[in-house]
Amino acid sequence: MAKMHVATTINGEPEEFLCEPHDSMLDLLRGALGLTGAKEGCGTGDCGACSIMLDGRLVCSCLMLAPEAEGRKIDTIEGMAQGETLHPLQQKFLEMAALQCGICTPGVLMASRALLERNPDPTETEVRFWLAGNLCRCTGYDKIVRAVLETAAEMRGAA
Amino acid sequence: MNVINNKWIGSRTIRPDGADKVTGRASYSADTSMPGMIWGKVLRSPHAHARIVSIDTSRAEAHPGVKAVVTAKDIVEFPLDKSVMLGIQDMRWMSRNVLAREKVLFHGHPVAAVAAMSERIAAEACKLIEVVYEVLPHVIEIEEAIKPDAPILHDFLSFEGKPSNIAGKLEHKLGDVEAGFAKADVVIERHFKTRPVHQGYIEPHSALVSVVDGKAVIWSSSQGQFMVRAMTSLLTGIPQSDIRAIPAEIGGGFGGKTIIYLEPVATILAKKTGRPVKMVMTRDEVMRATGPTSGSMSTVKIGATKDGKIVAAQGTFYLQAGALPGSPIRGAAGCAFAPYDIPNVHSTGFDVVSNRSKVAAYRAPGAPIGAYAAECVLDEVAEALGMDPLELRLKNAARQGTKAAHGPVFPVIGFVDTIEAAIAHPHYKTPLGKLQGRGVASGFWFNAGGESSAQVNITEDGNVAVTTGHPDIGGSRASIANITAELLGIDYKRVSVLIGDTATIGYSNLTGGSRVLFASAMVVTQSTEKVIKTLCERAAKIWKIDPEAVVWEDGEAKPAGENAGKFPALSLVDIAAKASETGGPIGAGVQQNTQGAEGGFATHVCDVEVDPELGIVRVLRYTSFQDVGRAVHPSYVEGQMQGGAAQGIGWALSEEYLYDKNGKVDNASFLDYRMPVCSDLPMLDAVMIEVPNPKHPQGVRGVGEVPLVPPLAAVANAVANALGKRFYSLPMSPPRVLEVLDGA
Amino acid sequence: MTEIRYIAPSSLEEAIGAYAAAAGAARILAGGTDLLVQMRAGVVSPGTIIDIKKIAEATGIEETPEGGFRLGAAVSGAALAEHPRFGQAWPGVLEAVNLIGSTQVQGRASPGGNLCNGSPAGDSVPAMVAAGAVVTLQGPNGRRTMPVEAFPAGPGRTNLAPGEILVSFTLPPRPKGSSDAYLRMIPRTEMDIAVVGVGVNLTLENGTVTAARVGLGAVAPTVLLVEAAAKALIGSKLEEAALEAAAEACRAACKPIDDKRGTIVYRTKVAGVLLKRTVAIAAERAGRN
Question: What three-state secondary structure class fits C185?
Fold first, then answer.
């Protein structure tokens, strides 16, 4: 089968890969590109563990075809920290124990960052509905929601 | 008990594995690859019940890209008439669950597996395996399975002398229930049903296995690398010494990863092909073919005198085992009445097989089912007596010295404290609005001790490396670091905690039974105490004084007093630097079968609001009160309480397995298997009550499982309080709520 | 193994050419939130995947000279939500489109995909039906339009002719005093497929309904336009009797099935409940316009 050549940008760096036309972006990220931070929890867009940013929009990478990445900008959890410096959300999740097993955490963090970029002062209800596509089975969401609200408050204070 | 200043124990430190997990670097099972790796895929049964007449794998084997095919004949056969136990698991059933042998027993039952150059080729080749089935009638529900004319799953099972789907019975008796009921002024008896629910871990099962020169290395996410090694050894015939099981980070388990599915299959494929084989389940496979917990059918009868003293309790609990025996009847029958001091108890559990996937452990296995029935009946007893439901519980609460029907006499326990805290809490006093209701329920779980191993080493630069043998499923590394730092009197950040594989740490039983911190804290404490003794000896050697004259204080060796001599204190760094000259590397390990895990108790308060036109129930407020022994890391203890409450709310309101008429799961996805999402829940308040376990150096009690015991009844009692109508079946989904409301 | 191709043409003509050439073996990719799930489940295995998101007309949001809106079939829910004026004119359509899946799904899922998927439970469809949206289709034989309610043919089936592609939705201009609303019943608060969905579009003059349309989803093989319900509302001041008559019309229109998501009894009852609630929201909004 003829593979397709795709040129894209991942976490700010130009990247090229070969894929089959029906490969999902998640397959490519986790496979050839070695970016295993995005997880496959369902493969049907119901759990959000594979969340990435595509041209600044939050999407499930399991619901995106790899060839669609051509000429686009992709951001993954691996690009969230600046070198050794964690993003305020990452730091707050650690401080407030907003993760247990951690499998949903990359997706939850990507989604939370997307929320705060659009809405720096969300209500609890807004956080809960924004994150409704990110399943977490360990925490009951309590500490996740608190960490997002707390980070938002701190980022507003720092801004 | 050690004298500790509690600088670190009880503090909310940042978990050692945290940065890896928030940056996407933590390596879970499916994140691992190997050079030359190929892919395995399982062929699953399209029938709920059928005899396997023949399996022809030749076309699949000839398919381009296919490297090997396995069926049940490639794994060790365990004859049906001879039990081989590993812990609570019988290998006769485990082997047949991993690959069907005589029959397929549920839709999705593995029949064969293929290894090929890609996952897609392996999946295609599965379709080329020709299986001839003789389809048999199937049975899904308990009430059907126990009928005299039900299709029998296993002809070797009999009950009361007849072929039966009842695979086992367990009974607890205390006193004389008939005499007890005779004394009662109020007797209430009700029947209940619950549906099977899945643990719902977000990470599907997966395994990567390499076999070279007969030696296997297994990377998989499980609740016990030693369980993986032992079961794979039993099923493949490879000795344990030739299997190294490496615990990947685990993406949730809740009991469901205390058994194996893919590991032995991938091992045999890897052995046959000489290449590393990776297998990853889809969500669909997880929902169809891995173990949910049992659905149930129960009857509970409770009698009390006018003054609110419970005089007798009787329970009968039928639990689905799935296709092969082994449902958690012990948890249902044993825990249902355990929170109370009841003189006359008769509690019976029946293990029922039917054509569903084999159940697996789920957080306090069986106990939520027992508590649901018992705590709902208690609520009605309180109503009949005109008593506050928490006061009724308080009046009858088990205390130190109470004998439980399942055997033990309770030592120091904090159950009363949880009820008193609930009564005193603002939540319990807050007025409710229209169509709102409040429910309460309590719960008990056994908790477990068992085998654990630890090694504590001092690094050459004077820091600490701790290794234990339990996969860290929810922050246990942070708690172990807290304890080690506390005992050594050093900064928490100087302690690293690793989970060893089966080759690098001694045998450690499962991450399960709420046992990890209880057991590992014991062996880590003893190891650290040995290290401290060595550190004092080394200081004594440097100072040329008697080791007895050295004490360890605030992270330093000091002379014990004026008489010992005057020496400047030696730090861990100082002593480590001189380790070679004073006797060599410093470290100690302890391996032990830990004892003294005492039961856990909790009381939950739940507020709901019901939309009576649509039948929707929403949880408005939820508060858990739990005796946590000692919260070594409070955030992760709260996390256990909150997570359990959320799972219980799902069980009560929206989660269930649905089957079509062919016995196929009809909702095998996160879309239709409705676990609570973020917008479904309120904040979940967790009130920790610390009544230290006197048998543990830090006072630890297991905290992980009891949070799932009370919620089903707490939610059900809240709905009853809101509507003035009772529900005896879960989940209380919108169509069922309307059915009951409109049935008026 | 079949050869699979992915193409992303930049013109509609090119897309239609490729679609026709594939003779039924092709699938249109807009947001992909249904297509990729179906491909993964093996329900469909297209030979060619035609991504229409590089076609300007399929992804644009335009205000028509008459004062209506034209939405490209592949516009994502998130993009529609960000439009400065669409949500003011058509809050019901917007909330319906924005109820399709999670935030992540909203980044991709489109009203065109939702309609072409042919599910009677698609959230945007009852709202589009209530809005009186007209769809533009283009195929080898040119362009044509049809009312959105004529588009579905049954569960998973549409009235697209062979080789035809759904290009856009056109929503009419809004008279003063108009607004719309959409409500659905799902067991959870998010992430579910509608058990019943109701779209209502109203125009009020001094408190009297002068125009109404009602779309009803998930209660029949296709989304329904319930004209009897609209008739019951028109001319009324939304008195209880009119509301009850409209609710009864919705219940009478239901031809639901018992399935894993809801029972016949439940769906029928809920259709009436939701009609009343949706009308109340639409009327409240219309009163402000």
Answer: strand
